[in-house]
Design brief:
Shape: globular
Strand content: 15-25%
Distance between the termini: 59 Å
Oligomer: single chain
Number of helices: 15
Helix content: 40-55%
Low-confidence stretches: 1-14
Strand order of the largest sheet: 5-4-3-9-10-11-12
CATH superfamily of the largest domain: CofD-like domains
Amino acid sequence: MIDRNGGNEKVRFYDYKKILKNFREIAYRIKSKRKLDKTHNSIVKKIFAKQNPKIVAIGGGTGLSVLLRGLKEFTPNITAIVTVADDGGGSGKLREDLGMLPPGDIRSCILALAEMEPTMEKLFRYRFTEGSLKGQNFGNLFIASMNGISENFEEAVKKVSEVLAVTGKVIPVSLDNITLYAKLENGSVIKGESSIPIKSLEQQSEIDRVFIKPKESKAVKDAITAIKEADLIVLGPGSLYTSIIPNILINSISRGLIDTKATKVYIPNIMTQPGETDNYSVLRHVEAIIKHCRNISIDYIVVNSKKLSEKTVEKYKLEGARLVTLNKLGREKLEKRNIKIIEEELVEIKKDYIRHDTVKLARILVDLAVRRK
């Protein structure tokens, strides 16, 4: 930058050649880093592919589907065990109208693991905007149609997975018509997965515990087998009380998690969820899981360590969400339980939404699976 005086004004001339040179150098470094990361990921994938670790991911909703997108880059041996307690939105309507299990979370997981053309993916994500189908998703309707010509919902999911060339397996946790309930700290009982966070906020009372009816719901056999044979089992990320815990409330699933020799990992959400985990720390997330499955042992917890700018979290703050943090006391209590803590910068921001960096998270998990194997 060159300063020259002209009368009472100071005119600044910029050395554009120098700026352009610096810009090119920075761009080259960024490109080189991306190339290096891509090469490193490729090498890691080849190593992991030879090991072929078996990974089971348990949960539902957006959190599980985000994780699956990363995992399929490193191993084909993935089994997603998905909650069937959803009763809201288009899934809830199909559940009510057709008496079928909710397809929404299943659909998201199938799409995450599928190999399909962009047009086909757009079609399966398409949501009708008018008429009697307004708000309904084409993918949900496709699963509903397959359910109509299949023996049961499990078979329908298998057939859809075959049609869409899914890597691994997507399994509904149960074929029973499960309803989720929550008992709030004020003593009131809320019926229905979609109503729980709403009523919790309305009554300004936190969730004490959740439970399912029928209480003796049975797990799908393939889910039990997958847990038994797994090298690594992952709980989360996802909604704690409405996506993750409903699965472990099924007795055969909780017994399987207690008895398995697989490494068990929990991944808490990056942000708290209003009406569900308000002001929850990492420790409180873990304590909630142990409260609902007393004898479960968690080997690792994967925590985001990246600090986010005020601007990034401002939108979430307006909605009542906060960063899920791990303080010194929480760290000490987790270590007393022999839970190893893995801290990494795991945040990825897309369209102002905070998500886990799916590839980085998957690499951590597959590495743990390979070590176990």
